[in-house]
Amino acid sequence: MQEQLSLLDLVINASFVVQLVMLLLLMASVISWYMIVQRVIYFRNSRDDMLAFEEQFWSGIDLAELYREGNERASEGGVILGMESIFRSGFKEFSRLAQQSDMDAEAVVEGARRAMRVATLREEERLEQNLPFLASVGSTSPYIGLFGTVWGIMHSFRGLANATQATLATVAPGISEALIATAMGLFAAIPAVMAYNRFAARVDVFENRYDTFVDEFSSILYRQAYALRSRNRKS
């Protein structure tokens, strides 16, 4: 009775090229899972921070006081990201431009909007971090695994040329070890594709919330800018 080879034996006895493909796919899978876990934690924390800031922003707190609280946290080593970072960029630019008496309200608010747009782009870059790698793993891993499979089958059939008797039992181990590469390619690709699609949808949600906040905050700044310019003209 012929001894059956275990999965580990098939990997160890595979050709060098197939082993290299398996190692590459294993590394891609490990890195992908690390990035998936990191992104899950990041998106969860970003969502919690965004909801907390929105609640505080719409609670009626004075915007200058909200800005000062952020300064205090930043001075203590805190990292301010997400929607609050967009708010701080806009409010800082608004405060700076509002002090220039030669600028009208439209120009002041437009300057603040530009600052918020730049901050929004930075936040979007943070949200999309590692997503290109997941997309690359999801799209290329099956083909890398297929390459290993094709190479392994070619190597197996070349070995039949020197065999005195060509049977299924002779070629089966070589084909089996080659097919492992395809399985590993799918193992690396499927989680990466699913995670990428999920994270891309989350990024869209965050971007829409950021854009909405910029528009709403700009409306508030418009009112403050016109009120400030009206007081200056009266005085």
From TrEMBL:
GO terms for cellular component: plasma membrane. The chain crosses the membrane at residues 12-37, 131-154, 174-196. InterPro entries: ExbB/TolQ_transport, MotA_ExbB_proton_chnl, Tol-Pal_TolQ. Keywords: Cell cycle, Cell division, Cell inner membrane, Cell membrane, Membrane, Transmembrane, Transmembrane helix. Signal peptide: none annotated. Residues 84-211 form the MotA/TolQ/ExbB proton channel domain. GO terms for biological process: bacteriocin transport; cell division; protein import. It is found in: Cell inner membrane; Cell membrane. Pfam families: MotA_ExbB. The keyword Cell division applies. It is a multi-pass membrane protein. HAMAP family: TolQ. Belongs to the ExbB/TolQ family. The Tol-Pal system is composed of five core proteins: the inner membrane proteins TolA, TolQ and TolR, the periplasmic protein TolB and the outer membrane protein Pal. They form a network linking the inner and outer membranes and the peptidoglycan layer. Part of the Tol-Pal system, which plays a role in outer membrane invagination during cell division and is important for maintaining outer membrane integrity. This is Tol-Pal system protein TolQ. It comes from Chromatocurvus halotolerans. The lineage of its organism: Bacteria, Pseudomonadati, Pseudomonadota, Gammaproteobacteria, Cellvibrionales.
